[in-house]
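Researcher: Can you fold this with flavin-adenine dinucleotide in place?
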Amino acid sequence: MSRFAKERPVVYWEEPEAAVAGCEPALGVRTCAETGVIVVTPSLPEGMDEAARDAALKALLDDFLAQYEQPAIRWYYTPMMLPFSRHIETDCTVYDCMDELANFRFAPSQLLDLERELLAAADLVFTGGYSLYEAKKDRHPNVHPFPSSVDRAHFGQARAMDAAPDDQACIRRPRFGFYGVIDERMDLELIAKLADAHPEWSVVMVGPVVKIDQADLPQRANIHYLGSKKYEELPVYLGGWDVALMPFAINESTKFISPTKTPEYLAGGRPVVSTGITDVIRHYADLEAVFIADGADAFTEACEKAFALAQGSDDWLTEVDAKLANISWDTTYARMAGLVRDALAGSQSTATGPRLITSAGKKKYDYLVVGAGFAGSVLAERLASQHDARVLVIDKRPHVAGNAYDHYDKAGVLIHQYGPHIFHANSDEIVDYLSQFTRWRPYEHRVLAEVRGQLVPIPINRTTLNKLFGLNLQTDEEAAAYLASRAEPVETIRTSEDVVISAVGRELYELFFQGYTRKQWGLDPSELDKQVTSRIPTRTNTDDRYFGDKHQIMPADGYTAMFNAMLDHPNIDVLLSTDYKDVVDEVDAGHLIFTGPIDEYFGFRFGKLPYRSLRFEHQTVQQEWLQPVAVVNYPNPDVPYTRITEYKHLTGQTHPNTSITYEYPSAEGDPYYPIPRPENQELFKKYEALADATPNVTFVGRLATYRYYNMDQIVGQALATFRRIDAKRKASGKPVAKAVWTEAAE
Ligand code: FAD
Ligand code: UDP
């Protein structure tokens, strides 16, 4: 809510409070100073029947909302709020389902009917965990799971806590603690037996007792009920425990829960002992510090083990922190906000992003940019923001971002439409430039190759050699000597075969490169320029990262979100699903920037430049993970595809299912790869000469300059192109750019 409140007013409508009979229904309204969230608390006189209560709440709500033009979004945590708010007209309704409420004790009988109504009315359904997602996913076309995130900084305070609250300081250690609502979901007997099994331990229970009788709580000298505490205080209590507990009963009311306290406890640096809650097992049971045990004996034994772990070294925190690093409220917010935006727009996200137009019309532009990929979008952004130029960007595809386009597939997994795009760069300037339009998540790419029935690292490194040949090479020197004994000297390295043979010899060349390259390019490595396989280093150490660049990062909300931000400028219009040839005569623009294939621009007058294409086969698999790393390569010539990509490794998304892409190389299809061969370069040079002699047109990008460039290189090329345009403008006496990135690599 606090994150959304930065974007728009957020009103949080609470459950009504009871006021004395006879007084008027009223509203308490306060604005949270820290977040700006407006909290509204109705109070209703006791004794009203249900119909009267709903009517009173409806009147209060209408009255309150009169001050706003129109609420754009209704957001429900419970269907029970529907009866007095269903009439409010909105552009988007969200059902944010946090629990299977109908399974709770004293659940109102109309809850199921109301939930049905809410599901029918909702544009979006979010669930507070995967089990709940599975329970709801067939009941609505737009359901998305959002397991709990964690405020790591807040709960992390527990790791170095020396303050002890008075009511806990007097409780002797070791302490086994729980915080949360104490209700029918708690296994009270389990708690009693744990306390009995270890009278020398203390069990600390923090939280309100709800819906169950205080008298039913087990009472022992070593069980301490400390009552409700504020969110701010939780780390202080957690910091004083040795082990954190989740002693839930396993029944209908806990079947779908996804306890937020699991990551909180872990962020606080405490081992966790839980009963067999499905979502805890699903997401956390792989951690050394998470113990799952059902039944009093097993639970007690697990507590003993957890306590022993807590007494020892902190090594187990490393994997805990790695897991927590992927769960953040910022990411959750970004994804939710994106989905809400899409729902508001009725389709793909446009609410903040490029100004999409539907025809070139009669408007006058300074620049027409063909292609909304990196080359076109960077130039459009620079020209609009730095020269105040009016720019029309067109793309024949129905989306921006060119080959880097990513989107959520039907299953809700973020995928790359045109194969895996991993960002890596050495230039700070290029990263700084793009950082204006995105936050980043660290990601180091690792690839395995299936060779002789094993998955081994590629680029070839010491581990690859040891695994493949059953060796025990211990040092860089040993690995280097081994490779040298296999390498075949090549006098002048010209081809992609020369590169590999001279580094690792024929056997490894055939195993890793020959088949893959023949498939990928339709050519033998001996027929390809050395630059192709030179992209892949050979290592004598055990570094198994695919890239060695200084920056290895991915846009936190994906590439398309980054492009949307880049093109979000009042001077930029974007026209999609439009081929340049179809509108070039209508568009009134002073200058053309062309990022499509250069041979196509000139009507193929010297013949076609060869490109290699790919066919992508996207699939969703009904399991959480498929392969150990993002990309597995298949160099074997008998396998028809070159590689399989599993996106969640790249994006950090958590989802119960996983989406993958097979890549089948092909001679036909979209032009993805310029083919680096001397004769192709010669042909390109002819087109380039023509391009140089064509006034008012700038050719930029992978297709227009016919080079096997990565994304960062294209950004560098586009920034350099802008600098040249800027310099020309300066020479003509016009104002120069407000800020120019000076050192971007070309
Ligand atoms: P593009 O992204 O191709 O954009 C050109 C745009 O122009 C396209 O959207 C096209 O539709 C449009 N267009 C063309 N002709 C016309 C026309 N006549 N009318 C209207 N529009 C037109 N790089 C990396 O750094 N890391 C990676 O991991 C990586 N992986 C890759 C994987 C694959 C499978 C591929 C194919 C490329 C990969 N790349 C990677 C390279 C990266 O895609 C390119 O460097 C980058 O997309 C080039 O940007 P661009 O703007 O030059 O071209
Ligand atoms: N390559 C190979 N085997 C592999 C990986 C790469 O033969 O397991 C060769 C192949 O010719 C490929 C080239 O090295 O086209 C460059 O690989 P890279 O992963 O850089 O290609 P990308 O798909 O990123 O363009």
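Model: Folded with flavin-adenine dinucleotide in place. Residues 134 and 145 are 9 Å apart (CA to CA).
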